[in-house]
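Q: what does this look like with zinc ion bound?
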Amino acid sequence: MNKRFLILIFGAFFLQEQVADIKLPQNFSTIVEKLIFFKKNNFKVFYGGPIGGSDKGVKWVMPVAFEDELHKTTRAVYEIAFVNCNFDTADGAEIMFVDICDIDIKFKNMFSPDYASFASLLRGEYIHEKYIVVRRADVAHIYYPDIFISADHSPHVEDKSQIIHFLHENFKTKNCSKDCNTSLREKQVIAYENDFEISYVPLKVQTNFHGEAHQFFITKKVRKNDIWKLYYIISRDENVLTNSAALSEGLLLRLDSGCVSGQIYNDSACDCLDQLHSALHALTESPSAGIIVHIPAHDGRGFGTAPKAETEIYKIGGKGRLHTTAPLDTVQAAQLLYGCSDFDIRTFDGAAQMCVDANIKKVILLTDNKQKVQALKDAGIEVLRQKTDTVKEACSHHIQAKKNSPYYYNDETNQI
Ligand SMILES: [Zn+2]
């Protein structure tokens, strides 16, 4: 093989890594435009979608974006959660701003006073009959490809006054109480930065997971050439990625897609929270070392929080911003919104490349998703598979619809 040919091959490989292989529906930007509820200058509120659960608690969540000068939804992102009311019954509701980071909520860590009070707010236990909780996200993906990442999750004063004004004008909310809590989270420190990534010093999280005290480490990595940009590596052992025996003998691995409605607001309509917690449980039980690679920007199977919220309306059945329909399953709902058969634009080659960069040679992958297996194999990693066993009665229909699609294994074995 001559040198020129080798350069060509490496050139093509490099290009492939840089260019996103994402086929968006042709009219995706028109769809996103129609999901906007209110727009003024760089302030955009999306219609959002319902949150299923018990009679009390969060009923609806609207994503809010403050755009940058290029009109990308990347300056600041907030979520407006209507508690014990819907947006058409919110008159008189009190507004509260909370300050709590995404990952604390996703762990459901009752050892964290911030989370304990946030959880009680979401359950609808505040003294007022109905109220609105506004949270600033530290990572958000309202629609593809704009991904917002911030090191800070405190609400900004100017943003707050704009959101309060918007709520008063549109939903007859009556007042705003003082901020509910202030996060005491330690500041994130960069461990190293190179051409490909910024890697942060692992954060230790003590949690009362599954009724027992456990300790996890969370390493945040911002991948500079990756379309999903941010990855959290969750492990029990702070030094798991320097354990060469574990990396070559078979690391338990879960590639976990983020979900705002399920993992932050406890929506009963999907099993994303259960999948994450089942993987955390697997880490605590596994005799071999393991990691979860959590990918927040994969929300809505990569399309983002706002379009995904619209599909949640179609799943219940009723009138959304674009369509009115009888109840659909999760796949049909996405196909109706996007007008095409492809309901999943997530890619896993970035996560696989990160595993390669971390010298991972062999994994036992917790998954039912064929694409995750393929991405790791394509990256040269040896893959054994362990099927997932999430059982959630409230959304068994949702789980089955996924498994019936060509992307998923639909049998009771661990075969690939
Ligand atoms: Zn979900």
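The chain has two domains: 20-184, 190-300+341-403. The first helix runs from residue 3 to 18.
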